[in-house]
Design a protein that fits this description.
The chain has 423 residues and is of the alpha+beta class. The protein has 10 helices and 13 strands.
Length: 423
């Protein structure tokens, strides 16, 4: 690699709000998005909520001259909604579907049916290996009474672990997507502390776009004010995050967002704002890196966020076990009633009434059984996450006690061994 080597990478990210039959003006928005992407010719376009595979195929054909490589990540019943378009050949791709993703009986929220996931692309650019990740975490429907908080924290941890374990050979790591997390939320802090990823909005010196980098703003005609809750200026839940290995320096030269309409003042592409970042990768980083780096001083923030995550996951696990226990009692009650109805029917007493009550009781037992099994699975998944967090927290404390010289080696060894030890 030449000493004056520089790689310039232009990235586009958007949650497209492409729900068939429900999202307003979906076909027109997809068409205009395709025109815009062709015009701008980004290196990478990473999209979320492309729920219709027909929309992906339309974009693929439309963008083929500019973005010859593309991939659609399939998962769940509805799909992950994740897809990518690249000017450069895709060397490898894979995905990880999150273990927890809401509740199947919360049909009106639909997250469980979507198979939320993280997708990975591996690109080779100018002799460098780039791992590009695109993801979409569980939505936050009620910030005051957030029943999905433990699930989102678990997803953030799975995401961080997936990035760590798949990026060992990468020179540059890029993560884009709708995290459904505010910058100071627990899941966001956990992800950034554990992976060392830098936030483009916080790092760039040239930002143009919505106030405070918000990616859902009241100016957008598709956004309802009640969706913003106590944040009248908007919320920032979509991100461009990145890092580079030692010996390389990565910076965000420019970052732009749309501001309630498309970049040419037309109707918005989505209810979310698009992110457009220009990243620069250079050899031989300068002495004073403006981006924060992991080191001894960060042991305390890491320990603190791990402790918070452990407590939240532990609370979620206790709640899951409680619901599983309630469902178990319902199963027992249903079986008892079924036995009583069988006895009444066999004895000839109120036979007609017993037969009428038979079907609802069978439904009660089956429904309670499914409810019990789901929450047992939820409790086991949260227990797995809690065990991993507890192990990592112990290693971080051990590194902190042994002093700065031992911290990097201990934390690195822990990260490589946490999954093996948990198994």
């Amino acid at each position: 690699m030449k000493p004056n080597f520089t790689l310039r990478l232009r990235v586009f990210n958007l949650n497209c709000w492409g729900i068939p039959y429900l999202s307003k003006h979906r076909a027109d928005r997809v068409k205009r998005l395709g025109d815009f992407l062709n015009m701008e010719s980004f290196d990478l376009a990473l999209l979320e909520e492309v729920w219709s595979e027909q929309d992906f195929q339309y974009l693929r054909q439309k963008l083929l001259p500019t973005y010859p490589a593309a991939h659609y990540f399939r998962s769940g019943i509805i799909g992950s909604g994740l897809c990518v378009f690249s000017k450069h050949p895709i060397q490898e791709f894979t995905q990880h579907v999150f273990t927890l993703n809401g509740y199947p009986y919360m049909i009106h929220h639909c997250d469980w049916f979507c198979g939320k996931a993280v997708g990975l692309l591996v690109l080779h650019l100018s002799g460098l290996v780039l791992n590009a990740y695109v993801t979409h975490l569980h939505a936050e429907y009620n910030r005051q009474k957030d029943i999905y908080l433990a699930h989102r924290v678990a997803q953030a941890w799975e995401l961080a672990q997936f990035i760590h374990h798949t990026s060992k050979k990468a020179d540059v790591v890029l993560l884009c997507g709708d995290l459904n997390l505010h910058p100071k939320d627990l899941g966001c802090r956990l992800l950034k502390e554990w992976t060392g990823l830098h936030d483009a909005y916080l790092e760039t010196r040239d930002f143009k776009g919505s106030e405070e980098g918000c990616t859902m703003v009241p100016k957008n005609c598709y956004v309802k004010q009640q969706e913003l809750g106590p944040f009248p200026l908007g919320i920032r839940i979509d991100y461009v995050l990145y890092k580079a290995v030692s010996g390389l320096y990565i910076s965000c030269k420019t970052l732009k967002t749309t501001t309630g309409h498309d970049p040419y003042s037309g109707p918005p592409f989505s209810d979310h704002e698009a992110l457009m970042a220009t990243l620069c990768v250079r050899h031989s980083p300068p002495q004073h890196n403006p981006s924060p780096t992991h080191g001894p001083a960060e042991s305390s923030p890491l320990t603190s966020v791990l402790r918070e995550a452990w407590a939240e996951v532990d609370q979620g696990m206790a709640q899951a076990r409680w619901w599983a226990t309630v469902a178990g009692y319902a199963i027992g009650l249903g079986l008892l009633l079924l036995a009583l109805l069988c006895a009444l029917a066999a004895g000839g007493w109120i036979r007609e009434a017993a037969l009428l009550l038979w079907t609802p009781n069978v439904g009660l037992v089956l429904g309670a059984g499914a409810f019990h099994l789901f929450h047992m699975q939820e409790a086991k998944s949260l227990c797995k996450t809690r065990t991993e967090l507890q192990h990592v927290l112990g290693r971080a404390r051990e590194a902190q006690d042994l002093g700065p010289e031992s911290q990097p080696a201990l934390l690195l060894g822990q990260q490589e061994g946490d999954r093996a030890e948990e198994q």
